[in-house]
Amino acid sequence: MTESATESGQVSRVALGEWLMLAAFIALGIFVYQQINGPLTAQGNASGDPVNNAALFPRLVANLILGLSALQLVQLLRRKVRLSAEFRYKATGDSAWRCLACFGMLLAYLFALPLAGFYPATAAFLLALVVLLKARPIWFAVLVAVLITFVVGYVFEELLRVVLPQGRLGLSF
Amino acid sequence: MLKTLIKTAAVAALIGPVAGAAFAADDYPSRNIEMMFPWGPGSAFAMAQIITNAMGDELGTNISVVSTPGAAGVKSFNTALEKPADGYTLIDGWVAPLVLQPLAGNTEFTHTDFTPLWSATRVPFAVVVRKDDERFPDYDAFIQYLKDNPGKARYSSGSIGNIPHMVLAKMMQTEGVYARNIPYPQDGDAFKDLRGGLLDFSFNDPITFQSNKDAFKTLVAFTNEKDVAAAYDENTPTLDDLGLDIGLTGLAPSGWNWFLVHKDTPEEIVATLNTAMEAALNRPEVQERLKAAGFLPTMYPPERYEEIVGPIGDQIAAAKDAITWEAEQLAK
Amino acid sequence: MFDILLAGLDSFQSWQVIGGVILGTVIGMVVGVLPGLGPLIGIILMLPVTFHMQPVAGMGMLMSIFVAGSCGGAISAIVLRIPGTPLAAATLLDGYPMARNGRAADAIGLAIASSALAGVLGGVVMILGAPALASVATNFGPPEYFALAITGLLSISVVSNESTIKGLMTGALGVLIAMVGSDPLSNAARFTFGTNALSGGINIVAIIVGLFALSEAAVQILEGGLRKKPEVQSVRVSLGSLWMALRHWKNLLRSSAIGVFFGALPGASGIIASFTAYAIARSRPLKGDAPYGEGAEGGVVATESANNAACGGAMIPTLALAIPGDAATAVLLGALLLLGLVPGPQMFALSGDAVGGIFLAFLVSNIVLFFVGMLMTPLFVRVLRVRKQYLVPVVLLLSIVGVYSVQSRVDDLWVMLVFGMLGFGLRRYGYPLAPIVIGLILGPIAEGSYRRTLLFSDNGPWFILERPIASTILAIDIIVLILTLTPSSLRQRAFTLFRKWRA
């Protein structure tokens, strides 16, 4: 969180992320054109009558995005950007690391879910998450993780009758 | 507690794959079953629930119907095929993803890649126009109008390239006429625009027709059987009444579904499911409710799957060219 | 109206019916609050149960789920800043700031009271005017839908506060995301990279939960204070929120009218209604209310009354023409058929006791919603007192299981993860998320109706000018657009000039 806002809402230096977001939107606009001229043209759906012409509307939207990006570029050059209100605080490196680790765990959980099945994967995921978020003592964290897993499992399986992932390793409870 | 959990998990992981297969058939079903449904939730979804609810009763478990719409129904079939072939995933096999899409080359499966249970229901389609539309007093006048105004009339079959589109295009090709199909992803929007006067004619199903009787009238129902056409009303002519042969007979010109499971599902489990489904379909209240909603039970046993679906596939393969023909005429 | 309701009174007065309505309301609240689940899932899950109930009780329960589920999403939006259902995406704009200002209980009470009041109004319109309104709806063809979609898209500029450009960019992003998959008109594969997984499009629930819930989890962790016990005053059950809502009676009536109107058009939905109502309410703030975007009561009243009035509206084409506007009413239609009732104009004319009972159940479900909601409010506020270290994991888990249960696909969870990261990036740099929801919903309507308009037309888009309703709506849109784009000083000068000219 490097930038700081002046009274008028203008910033002294535009953050790198602002430029990256803008670049991503411009890339998106170009990507749409690439898709229209590539796969859609190859399928024969980039022209013709309104039924067949699946590129009619994407082209409009791509033009809109590119036009807005040009306006946004002017804003950035004039340093007329506002800081998002919810980020006007300094996050510590510690929190940032913790946040990243959480997303890593979510990633691991999504890999594990179809393999191990709902109950083992979820209990492990929750345990890792609460421990990472500083829940102590550990025995309490374990208790919470297992308890929540079973409560959520019960609610969704028995009351809402959802078929939760079973796992391919043959685990079942 | 965690230790026990891990121990149990480890033991289960070791013996699971072996034990799982051996135990599976014996205590089937030991948990909830799900059925993949290829369209968005609606009337057909409720009908699937009627049948699976009774089946679940017979089996002593719960069967939840999961709607996975997308890619003309193919997404739901693919989702089901990705799940283990253990009898805990059923497929509501509607004709479009089961027969039409494979013929169009949009799938990696064909109808022979599934083990059939019992057939479920059929929905006969019809051509409807506005009651007060003086251009179309009957079917012959309707065809004459299309002849006099080639490509000018606008109709809807719901989506492009679906079964109703194929049937209507085939009918028009047989008569040597064509019109412009306006696609509506939600069928209901098309019926609304027929009522509102934007469309000239449209396909229809029995229940929408019953609910719009004040405004709609049928020109033909795509069936050879008088009692099937009666799902609309007594005055609805069948193909035979009009002496019309469009190359689609029996179930072929209608929407129908057949319950299926993955091909590799163990035989005993398929047998259990079949017994349950037969009993479920034979319940009077199930029959009554399906009929009242315009979904007519077909009652074909699993053994007749190949004999019925095979020829339908051949008819559809021949008829779907009518859609291409229509596009060519319009492009002229 | 009264003869229908009187005829229905007999079949309504049974414990099974009243119990069904109460049970349905509680279930509706729960599925509404849980991220990912919504009224549709609630109705689907409970439909098999109704097979064993008498028709009025069964329909009563399902409609209560519809009504309460449409309101429940507001609670997670207010408490957790996660819209429990897409319908609540607009409620978040002022509901969450209200909670942040320490007025969580007021915000929830206001949301429930407005929902209930507007729900009753919507119900009355449904019973009185269904056949007439249904025939109005049939006059709305593709050109009119296109004009309305543009109206809805205009509300983006309002909901994105000062960053209008960024808001329009994310709105356009939403439109593009909705295009992934088979094109609904030509069936051509768009932006799928030739994969099967994308050919069916991207599940909208996974997108919305990812964008809001995952990014919120990240924001909460970044903020720190994981082990701190939040100090939230406990609240007692009170009926005061009813008066609080009635203070906004003009807003309530206007937003309800907008809700019924959009609800009655098949395909348009409560989401457009709530964003449009919000945009209009914002231009007419009530004296003494907080500024919009910073916890204005009027914002919550507008969005919640619009999306619950839309429930009654959505029943109109469903009951009168058997043409449901969305998936939830489509399943309700299926349920009606299974109970042996054939929808259509005759349904109102017959005024059979079952029909009357169903209407009565719809009205009563809104009243029950109010009381059940008031009783449950202290419970919801308690959620705010849970330490983040437990709240964040539980909300994450509920979001995951909720999204999974919609289509039973693990792929959807990956979608959720990707959109969670996207949502965080967008929020970090001040790109508003609400316009994405608007784009997702309105994009397909705008595209489909525009292309259909061209198909009906012999002279391109000018066909719209031949349609009086469509051209009027578009003309209003253009005036609004010009007014928002011109600086206020210029507007003031033009106004003085106009007055001079008149004098």
TrEMBL record, chain A:
Pfam families found in the cross-reference section: TctB
Alphabetical list of InterPro entries matching this protein: DUF1468
Keyword terms: Membrane, Transmembrane, Transmembrane helix
Parts of the chain that traverse the membrane: 19-36, 56-74, 95-111, 138-156
Residue ranges occupied by any DUF1468 domain in the UniProt entry: 23-165
The protein, known as: Tripartite tricarboxylate transporter TctB family protein
Originating organism: Primorskyibacter sedentarius
Automatic annotation (TrEMBL), chain B:
Signal sequence, start to end: 1-24
CDD domains assigned to the protein according to its UniProt record, in alphabetical order: PBP2_Bug_TTT (cd07012)
Lineage: superkingdom: Bacteria
Gene3D superfamilies referenced in this protein's UniProt entry, alphabetically: Bordetella uptake gene, domain 1 (3.40.190.150), Periplasmic binding protein-like II (3.40.190.10)
UniProt xrefs under Pfam families: TctC
Keywords associated with the record: Receptor, Signal
Signal as UniProt keyword: yes
Family matches, as SUPFAM superfamilies: Periplasmic binding protein-like II (SSF53850)
InterPro entries, per database record: BUG, Bug_dom1
Family as reported in the entry's similarity comment: Belongs to the UPF0065 (bug) family.
Name assigned to this protein: Tripartite-type tricarboxylate transporter receptor subunit TctC
Record organism: Primorskyibacter sedentarius
TrEMBL record, chain C:
Pfam families listed in its UniProt record: TctA
Coiled-coil ranges per UniProt: none
Keyword Magnesium: no
Keywords for the protein's UniProt record, in alphabetical order: Membrane, Transmembrane, Transmembrane helix
Membrane spanning stretches: 21-47, 59-80, 107-133, 145-161, 168-185, 197-219, 257-281, 322-342, 354-377, 389-406, 469-490
Domain annotation DUF112: ranges: 21-438
Keyword check for Calcium: no
Protein name per UniProt: Putative tricarboxylic transport membrane protein
Organism per entry: Primorskyibacter sedentarius
Lineage of producing organism: Bacteria, Pseudomonadati, Pseudomonadota, Alphaproteobacteria, Rhodobacterales
